[in-house]
Design a protein that fits this description.
There is one protein chain. This protein is mostly helical. 66% of the residues lie in helices and 0% in strands. Helix 7 packs antiparallel against helix 8, helix 13 runs antiparallel to helix 14 and helix 22 packs antiparallel against helix 23 (524-542). The radius of gyration is 28 Å and the shape is globular. The termini are far apart. 48% of the residues are buried.
Length: 602
């Protein structure tokens, strides 16, 4: 193919550079995939694969106070677009403009005019030059932070190649789909992103064959995105295929195999298969040791410590963390964010073992590092670290301090598309913290902002969206907005029934909230119908002697009694309703139960 690829830039990379060779070919390569983050609480805890994570603002033209004249634009009229030499010339000018550091807007103008020239010269015939030029136009839009404007150009570029004209056209279409997936990912539209990647993978597989090593790289790329979307079964299938292809084509103990096993370990950990995750990590560590990759070995040791912590093998977890910490301090420095991430894990471990003084000490060590980050530290690293520390303060019943840390995490991130999914997760957690400290109006505003962002990004049918709607409903109840709360619970119920099914405990929690709200509204018959269903399911799942079943029986008996008093029917007072809902997620007031996300009243 004529060098058409989808470029994936790791978070720590330099700003996007767009090269357009004089021969009308756009060359590049897919960089190594960024590590998928371990934490999964947020809708997208980890950075999305993207065409670029940098945001290059257009440079002001020189002499902005004077009337601007662009000689190139005045020399080119519409009739000259029919010249077959004009497209390559304009594309070269776009390249030279970017290389010189001049205005990206001027480069964009050249690239758009080049695309028009290629289109007019090609007529109705499919043109790889046109497809490539449209990719460049989209890439410049992305470098300017205009991801929405890049999408139409990529969708058009995908329609240009003809699959019947050979592998060059097939791989050009593959490149377009992958770049489109990257762009949707930067906009936080994971569903559309995954759909584009899957289309690209299908075309690549049909062109190169199922066992081609390049197919393995795309499979791993797509598996990472499925992990970010919490779709672990799909991710496991793709990662298994990647391991099989690399096992066939790569040398034993290759770096590719190590990367595959680290991803597979992450998937197994997320699915609760800790022994399998540990096995993959040990094998990956052996490969890295054989290749002399000390820092990578330390990173794997951190992951091994996480598995030991999940298995309650605390001494082995401490050993793995301390081993990694020693390497990070010696190779990267005492104040590197990698050291801070180990401090956070040690703080979490000591909290879980009841050593709260040691836990707080490690939290403070991490906070000192984040207070004065080293040059090169990314905002995402700092925000994720502060969010994890906040979760520990929340667990030890210090919600005010947890809220302050979340606010700091928000301030460390710019409001740009690349950060919006992370900001959304942090903002949702802030809503929960505000609810816990009794600031219900602010909690509702926070949840409302999250709901608006999720609706705008096309994530309105995800389980996370249903959870946020439920939390916002609880905040509305505290503000005596009962009708609004009922609407939110009803929408949350529909989403969670679709995502989890009607028997899932989280879905039942929303049913319970909705029944209580109907009771407060005087809709006793509706409340009775829901409670009878909840009671039936809980008896089947938990048994008749479970305390939660007893609570549902008592509530149902009260409602049935009220329903029999036709004239003096008295609905459950709002004060009683709020009393039973004032503790979101069914947490004990001591705050000793740590959340794994957002929960429900159960």
């Amino acid at each position: 193919m004529p060098g058409l690829v989808s470029v994936k830039t790791p978070p720590a990379s330099t700003p996007l550079r767009i090269f357009t060779p004089e021969n009308s070919q756009c060359e590049g390569s897919r960089n190594e995939s960024p590590r998928v983050q371990r934490r999964m609480a947020s809708p997208s805890p980890s950075p999305s694969p993207s065409i670029s994570t940098s945001r290059v603002r257009p440079s002001p033209d020189r002499g902005s106070g004077k009337k601007k004249n662009t000689p190139e634009k005045t020399l080119i009229d519409e009739s000259s677009l029919d010249n077959p030499d004009l497209g390559p010339f304009l594309l070269k000018m776009a390249r030279d403009t970017i290389a010189s550091g001049d205005s990206s807007s001027k480069a964009l103008d050249f690239a758009i005019r080049a695309a028009r020239s290629f289109e007019r010269c090609a007529g109705s015939e499919p043109s790889l030059d046109l497809a490539m030029c449209l990719h460049v136009v989209a890439a410049i839009h992305c470098s300017l932070g205009r991801f929405e404007e890049a999408v139409p150009f990529l969708e058009r570029a995908i329609r240009v190649p003809d699959l019947e004209k050979g592998p060059d056209h097939s791989l050009a279409m593959f490149s377009g789909y992958m770049q489109l997936g990257d762009t949707h990912s930067m906009l936080g539209q994971l569903d559309k992103s995954i759909s584009a990647y899957e289309s690209g993978l299908k075309i690549q597989t049909e062109t190169l064959g199922e066992s081609d090593p390049r197919v393995a790289e795309t499979c791993r790329y797509l598996a990472e995105v499925h992990v970010q979307a919490l779709q672990f079964d799909e991710a496991e299938n793709l990662c298994t295929k990647t391991l099989e292809i690399h096992g066939e084509h790569s040398e034993p103990a290759s770096l590719e195999e190590a990367a595959d096993r680290r991803l597979m370990a992450l998937i197994c950990e997320a699915k609760g298969d800790y022994e399998a995750a540990l096995e993959h990590l040990v094998l990956a560590s052996m490969v890295m040791i054989a290749n002399g990759q000390d820092n990578e070995v330390a990173s794997i040791d951190v992951s091994i410590g996480d598995i030991y912590l999940s298995l309650c093998r605390f001494d082995e977890a401490v050993f793995s963390y301390q081993k990694a910490l020693t390497v990070f301090k010696s190779t990267k420095g005492d104040n590197h964010p990698s050291a801070a991430s180990v401090f956070i894990r040690l703080a979490d471990l000591y909290y879980k073992t009841g050593k709260l003084r040691e836990s707080k000490s490690y939290c403070e060590n991490a906070l000192r590092i984040y207070a004065k980050p080293l040059p090169g530290s990314t905002p995402e690293e700092i925000a994720n670290g502060l969010t994890e520390i906040s979760a520990i303060y929340e667990a030890v019943n210090e919600p005010e301090e947890a809220l302050k840390l979340l606010q700091k995490a928000m301030k460390s991130l710019e409001d740009i598309p690349a950060h919006r999914s992370t900001i959304t997760g942090i903002e949702a957690q802030m809503g929960v913290m505000l609810y816990m400290v009794g600031r219900y109006g602010e909690a509702r505003v926070s949840f409302e902002s999250v709901v608006a962002k999720l609706r705008a990004s096309g994530e309105r049918k995800t389980a996370f969206f249903g959870i946020v709607l439920n939390q916002m409903g609880l905040a509305c109840l505290q503000l005596y907005k009962i009708d609004e709360a009922a609407e939110l619970f009803e929408e949350a119920r529909g989403i969670l029934e679709q995502e989890y099914g009607p028997y899932h405990l989280d879905t039942l929690g929303v049913y319970s909230n909705l029944a209580a709200t109907y009771d407060a509204m005087g809709r006793v018959e509706d409340a009775i119908e829901i409670l009878e269903y909840i009671l039936k399911v809980r008896e089947e799942k938990l048994g008749t002697a479970n305390p939660e079943v007893d609570d549902e029986k008592r509530r149902l008996a009260e409602l049935l009694k009220q329903a029999g008093r036709v004239r003096n029917r008295k609905g459950k007072s709002l004060e009683n309703l709020l009393g039973s809902n004032s503790n979101p997620q069914g947490m004990k007031k001591e705050g000793t139960k740590r959340w794994s996300g957002f929960g429900f009243k159960t």
